[in-house]
Design goal:
The protein has helices at residues 16-25, 56-60, 67-78, 84-103, 135-149, 203-210, 225-229, 294-301, 315-320, 333-339, 352-359, 363-379, 444-447, 457-472, and strands at residues 2-10, 30-33, 50-51, 127-128, 154-157, 162-167, 173-180, 183-194, 237-238, 246-251, 259-260, 277-279, 308-314, 346-349, 399-407, 414-415, 422-424, 430-436. With 474 residues, it is an alpha+beta fold. The longest helix has 20 residues, at 84-103. It is elongated.
């Protein structure tokens, strides 16, 4: 069987849906293919943060902002490591993207726009998300898909992985082969857009491209399909060497190599001043726990053994969180106590030596570290790391430890594209007929070696809409 369309979009997620919809509204005949049984991809698990300067919502709240101010913040946070050409395209069109969602009934969380402290913060409140995080975007997308399908020019296939890119004798991409209902279906198209997401659920590819072991909190469909499909075309890769983990996640209760983001510890000092200490497997502290820069803490995490650490605290420290924000999202002190010895990575013991035995932390190192930390608390000064917030000594049994890993929600490396979203070969030449948008181009393109609030979801939506319009006219 062979079919023919103007455009095939591979991946019905954050970038692929608006691309396909805009192209269909522009007059193109579009096939949108998704390997999962449902659309949305990472929107099902993402916080859905978007960033834009100059939106209607900012104006309504009297917030002054500008494209140049947004660009300056991105350059500062990333240390100038972003793709300037791509980032400028995002930022110049971001307000229109957010206002578009607004006009379609997007349900903003009422506190937005705001400054987010889970990443290095912007100087201005320009981050937005929905009342149901990224699911609020998906709610809008379902209406967008319905409207585009109603034109008769958009067809959606689910449970339909793309297994091959078709090429002509001149190297041009001419279509795809899709596995549908157990049959190989060849689909010809003038243009193919890869919007297949990242690879933070594929350990071997992650180790190859990011150079680090994977502890994943990513969506299970994030398996690097776009990168794997283009290897025979000698596609270039951008963003290698930019890996930066998210700062700490509890091990998944049943699946090794995975982490649960939903029940993570609150480890951002601006959100919860720490009562606990952080130790590595030698039992030593390795950063000021109250360091205000999450970027600094994330970079320090990459330098400790296995990028694994434990938060260690005692019962008095745990009890002190009752009136404030919890140690673990959604867990009361009683619930945390109940998880100790039950939930993977959560431990409790009568002594520090016993706690070390349970966790694999070096006992001598842990005991010595606790003693030195207690001296710092008594003196009101931390000579080792300069920690300022020293509320309680580590002294009242029982003692607790929670194992944390450097975790990956997104991937920094990805397909190299030009400023028109065309995939480039390793020699820099564009591959005719092939485009890429969304996380498949790598987070480093729009975040650099950093996490810039909203600079993953916003580029995906914005690039998708811009490219869909453009391809409908070509």
């Amino acid at each position: 069987m062979e079919l023919d369309y103007d455009l095939v979009v591979v991946g019905a997620g954050t970038a692929g849906i608006p691309c396909a919809a805009e192209a269909a509204h522009g007059g193109a005949r579009v096939l949108l293919v998704e390997k999962d049984h449902r659309v949305g991809g990472t929107l099902h698990i993402s916080g859905g943060h978007m960033a834009a300067a100059g939106t209607r919502r900012q104006a309504e709240r009297g917030i002054a902002d500008s494209v140049e101010a947004h660009l300056a913040d991105i350059r500062r946070i990333s240390g100038g490591t972003v793709r300037e050409d791509l980032v400028r395209t995002v930022v110049e069109n971001a307000a229109e993207t957010v206002d578009w969602l607004d006009g379609l009934g997007f349900r903003f969380a009422p506190e937005t726009p705001r400054v987010i402290y889970g990443h290095e913060p912007y100087t201005t409140a320009r981050t937005y998300y929905g009342v149901d995080e990224a699911v609020s975007i998906l709610e809008v997308y379902e209406r967008v898909l319905a409207d585009a399908t109603a034109t008769g020019r958009l067809e959606l296939w689910k449970n339909a992985p793309v297994i091959e890119l078709l090429t002509g004798g001149d190297g041009r991409v001419t279509g795809v082969t899709v596995l549908r209902d157990g049959q190989d279906v060849r689909v010809s198209a003038r243009h193919v857009v890869l919007a297949t997401g990242g690879f933070a659920a594929e350990p071997e590819l992650f180790l190859e491209l990011e150079g680090a072991p994977l502890v994943s909190a990513a969506h299970p469909t994030s398996t690097g399909d776009g990168i794997l499909l283009t290897r025979e075309l000698d596609a270039g890769i951008q963003g290698t060497g930019s890996f930066l983990p998210s700062f700490g996640g509890l091990p998944h209760p049943t699946t090794p190599g995975k982490a649960n983001w939903s029940d993570r510890q609150l480890l951002v000092a601006a959100e919860r001043p720490p009562v606990e200490i952080y130790v590595d497997k030698t039992g030593r502290r390795w950063v000021a726990e109250d360091e205000p820069s999450i970027d600094t803490k994330e970079r320090a995490l990459t330098r400790i053994p296995d990028m694994t650490f434990w938060t260690v605290f005692d019962d008095a420290m745990l009890e002190s969180t009752r009136s404030g924000r919890p140690l673990v999202v959604g867990w009361t002190p009683e619930e945390l106590r109940a998880q100790a010895g039950v939930r993977e990575g959560v431990h409790r013991a009568a002594t520090l030596e016993e706690l070390a035995g349970q966790t694999g932390i070096d006992a001598e190192g842990l005991v010595a570290t606790a003693a030195r930390y207690n001296e710092a608390v008594a003196a009101g000064s931390d000579p080792d790391f300069g920690r300022v917030h020293l509320p309680l000594p580590l002294a009242e049994a029982p003692f607790y430890a929670i194992r944390n890993h450097a975790i990956s929600l997104v991937t920094f490396a990805g397909l190299d594209i030009d400023d028109g979203f065309r995939v480039r070969r390793a020699d820099g030449e564009p591959i005719t007929g092939l485009y890429a948008i969304g996380e498949v181009i790598g987070a480093a393109a729009t975040c650099g070696q950093s996490f810039c609030s909203g600079m993953l979801v916003t580029p995906a939506i914005t690039f998708g809409r811009l490219l869909g319009r453009r391809l409908a006219q070509s």
